[in-house]
Specification:
This protein is an all-beta fold and about 210 residues long. The chain has a domain of about 140 residues: YVTN repeat-like/Quinoprotein amine dehydrogenase (Methylamine Dehydrogenase, Chain H), CATH 2.130.10. About 0% of the residues lie in helices and about 50% in strands. The chain is built from one helix and 18 strands. A hairpin with a 4-residue loop joins strand 17 and strand 18. The N and C termini lie far apart (about 45 Å). It comes from Burhinus bistriatus.
Length: about 210
């Protein structure tokens, strides 16, 4: 006998003031006061990751009620995409407006887990704004897409501390979404959606008509 679904109710949620109040609305750069815009967001059961227009990643730990900040060295540029992953270690991938991609391996207080913050950089293959990021469930593979249609595969070895990247696909229009599962990468662009089989390096288009 099928169970009867409970009626759907509407619920209003208030803004996360405890999170927003921990992020400055302006920062001082020399004699200039620069407004901070929130530009990217991702969440999971452990963290809320917020990217900003000043190149700062704000990472809120939901269990400890603590906010931490991470940034890129050098030029302050807008963060365009963030992607969290909880596997054996907690990871967050960050993409910027100029095509920089970095992975932060977060510190954990649990036994046997990572005890030192580490950062891995995807070597400069992307030259334009990062528009999509996708993890494999085990955190060993990261796919990044940009607004010029390039998709880069990065193989991470957290034990060895290495990140090796290569261009795997190039589309004629901007990448808008990536998702990866079981050796298949789902790619959506402004013109079409396709399946990229990573072992065979083959492409299968979803549907026959191009997007308008």
């Amino acid at each position: 006998m099928a169970s009867v679904a409970s009626p759907v109710t509407f619920k209003e949620f208030c803004p996360l003031y405890y999170l927003l109040n921990a992020i400055p609305t302006k920062v001082q750069k020399g004699f200039r006061s620069i407004v901070v815009y929130l530009t990217a967001l991702d969440t999971n059961g452990d963290y809320i990751a917020v990217g900003s227009s000043i190149g700062m990643l704000y990472l809120y730990c939901r269990h400890l009620n603590q906010m931490k900040k991470y940034n890129f060295e050098g030029k302050c540029e807008s963060i365009t995409f963030v992607k969290l992953l909880s596997c054996f270690d907690d990871l967050v991938a960050v993409g910027t407006a100029s095509g920089r991609v970095a992975v932060f391996q977060l510190v954990s207080s649990l036994p046997g887990r990572n005890k030192q913050l580490r950062r891995f950089d995807v070597a400069g293959i992307h030259k334009s704004s990062i528009t999509a990021l996708a993890w494999s469930p085990n955190g060993m593979k990261l796919f990044s897409g940009d607004d010029k249609g390039k998709i880069v595969y990065s193989a991470l070895d957290l034990d060895q501390g290495t990140c090796n990247s290569s261009l795997v696909l190039e589309e004629p229009s901007s990448i808008v979404q990536l998702d990866y599962n079981q050796k298949v990468l789902l790619v959506s662009t402004l013109q079409r959606t396709l399946l990229f089989y990573t072992e065979e390096k083959s492409v299968k288009q979803v549907g026959t008509q191009p997007r308008k």
